[in-house]
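Re: beginner question about structure tokens

> Can someone show what the tokenized structure looks like for a real chain? I only ever see the sequence side.

Sure, here's an example I had lying around. Input first:
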Amino acid sequence: MNDLESEKNIDSSVSDYMLNDEKTIRTFIAYNFNSDAIENIKTNQNKLKNELCDYFKWESYDKFHITLKFIGETDKEFFNRTKKALVESSSKFRPFKINICAFAGVFPDMDNPAVLWLGINDETGMLKKLAGFYDDSLNEYRIKPDGKIFNPHITIARTKNKKKWRQYYKIDFINTFIPVPMEIVIDKISIIHSDHGNYKKIFTVDL
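And the corresponding structure tokens:
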């Protein structure tokens, strides 16, 4: 049993994904939702669509996730280091609960929204702690933290008409929107390959 198999149950369907020596791909570390959670997110997304359909391009359901660490361009050596760091950090955690769809908001601000998201209630702070462990572990492999404040969320739409948004300015609707929350268990973390807007799990480890 090698180092990557010794600590955690690794998804065999993606654990053998390898890169050619010359190839790089864009990757990030994330939690992917099960079908029940996706249905909950869809319910909240549809409620927002009813009022905001003219302003946003809505994310497809298979792209819902919580990003824990953006990696960026990744070659074969970088990918193997990331896998090892993921296993080492994940071995320090066990499954824990969070509440998704706790509130809604936009990035970067209401005057110039680029992304519409549903927020996470991480009362125990475990999700933030897990993301911090990935930062620290990857830093040991000379993969530097990106310097951004960790703000867990689920992207559900991206702005398509900022001019129209500024004209009608739906800030009150977003600020007063009450989503349907759901408690979920964070039990698996994946490395995701981002390829022209399509996401594919290429390595998964259990907590």
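Each token stands for a local structural state, so reading them left to right follows the chain. The chain is about 35% helix and 35% strand.
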